[in-house]
Amino acid sequence: MGPVTPADAATIAAHRYPDARDLPERPVYAAWVESALQDGPYLGFLLEGGGEVIAGAGVTLLHWGPTRGDPKPWRARVVNVWTHPDWRRAGPARRTGRWVSRPARTR
User: Fold this and answer.
1) Is 65 left (phi over 0), alpha (psi -120 to 50) or beta?
2) pTM score, two decimals?
């Protein structure tokens, strides 16, 4: 499992928009992911198995401001949780979700 990089933007966009009818959305979303990874509000992880991506998850960090009882200004919105159909119900989404929540908690 490893953190996503700007080079993974097209893969993440394909996970987000898997249907053929959504193909026009992919380049727009990939460009956003690439920019968000470089600027810092997007964090994600991809899990590989057998030489291919089998699962992934990401969070968008929102500058929410401190709240009563929590002085940290950041909130994480979970996005792009995806699992290859052959690996569903086998735990990889749970693993990527745990991994992606760790760095989000430190902000």
Assistant:
1) left
2) 0.79
